[in-house]
């Protein structure tokens, strides 16, 4: 039988799924983690989730439903808690399969409070969630919490980042406030966003710009932004996303680590001077010399989230009749490099 209660549950036991569930459980809050059956079995055999990086933590796991202080792990969507907010933490190209598996068993009949959100980069995930669960059940979510997995299974929390949640098309609700409170209590800074579309599009613009330049140059963010040629390429990409956003009546904003409105309001020269003025000591703590996730995936030979980030944006541009030649070129180049599209 599924656990009755509320709180948050995660779908996908990767970096973010393990970080969110471990920190929620460590703060005494309910935390259920739905993993693929083989991964669930592996986690349960390990007995704990180990986090390193900005925190050092080992959090016990047990079959869901688990007692307080423990992450409840399951491979069975029917064991997801009632009344919970379900955050999908799979990669973008894994989302359709994960949604289909969850939708077959969740939400249970008579569970009006259950809702779903996704932390994937890009805008496609909310369309997919709404198509599966209905608009009323979907909350907009954006996170810049940083995590990666070491080969031995240890999860590295590289930055607590920030998470934004908000209702579509706009507004804040009791369920959003409750989820924001839960994340903050877990030590994951979170905010309720009255205009989540602005946050989503601003993050999507940053993803198109950062991944577009970094995947094709294999440079870390701070290094590429200090090269005027590459800063101009980033800015050209986010200006194209801005034109598409405007066609959908969305305005960019300034958010933690992606102050897109400020970048758009300044000239390229002003931005280049700003990027160059930021202190950056390679290798020093806080220098954040970490490759963007899509570049990490490229170098590790993993499939890229190119369709969720680039192809979806090109499709939105085409539907709105807005030219997006730069994003289209970058989409083609990155798809051409993608092991997911062209396995060796
Ligand atoms: N990591 C970050 O710093 C960060 C920051 C902001 C946004 N994001 C976005 O957040 C998403 C997740 O990133 P991540 O780094 O956490 O990815 P990740 O480490 O690759 O984790 C994805 C997890 O999803 C699991 N999964 C795949 N299909 C599934 C299914 N059908 N049912 C259950 N679980 C399934 C995978 O399971 P297996 O292990 O069994 O293969 C994997 O553990 C991405 O879209 C990323 O762009 C990440």
Task: Summarize the structure in words.
With 344 residues, the chain is α/β, with parallel strands linked by helices. It is built from 13 helices and 14 strands. It has helices spanning 15-26, 37-46, 95-103, 124-133, 174-185, 196-217, 221-225, 228-247, 260-265, 268-277, 293-299, 306-320, 325-337, and strands at residues 8-11, 31-34, 48-53, 57-63, 71-74, 85-88, 115-118, 139-143, 146-149, 155-159, 163-167, 190-192, 254-255, 258-259. The strands form three sheets. Strands 7-6-1-2-5-4-3-10-9 form a nine-stranded mixed beta sheet, with helices on both faces. It has a three-stranded mixed beta sheet with strand order 8-11-12, sandwiched between helices. The protein has a two-stranded antiparallel sheet with strand order 13-14. Helix 6 (196-217) runs parallel beside helix 11 (293-299). The model is unreliable at 1-5 and 283-288 (pLDDT under 50). Residues 11-17, 34-36, 39, 89-92, 94, 97-98, 101, 119-121, 143-147, 149, 293, 305 line the site of NADP nicotinamide-adenine-dinucleotide phosphate (NAP).
What portion of residues is helical?
40-55%
Order of helices and strands: EHEHEEEEHEHEEEEHEHHHEEHHHHH
**Cofactors and ligands:** NADP nicotinamide-adenine-dinucleotide phosphate
Counted by DSSP, the helix tally is 13
Uncertain spans, ≥5 residues at pLDDT below 50? 1-5, 283-288
Radius of gyration, whole Å: 20 Å
For the biggest sheet, the summary is:
9 strands, mixed
Major sheet strand order: 7-6-1-2-5-4-3-10-9
How large is the share of residues in beta strands? 15-25%
Structural category is alpha/beta
Shape: globular
User: What's the β-strand tally?
Assistant: 14
| N-end to C-end Cα span | 44 Å
Mean pLDDT, rounded to whole units?
93
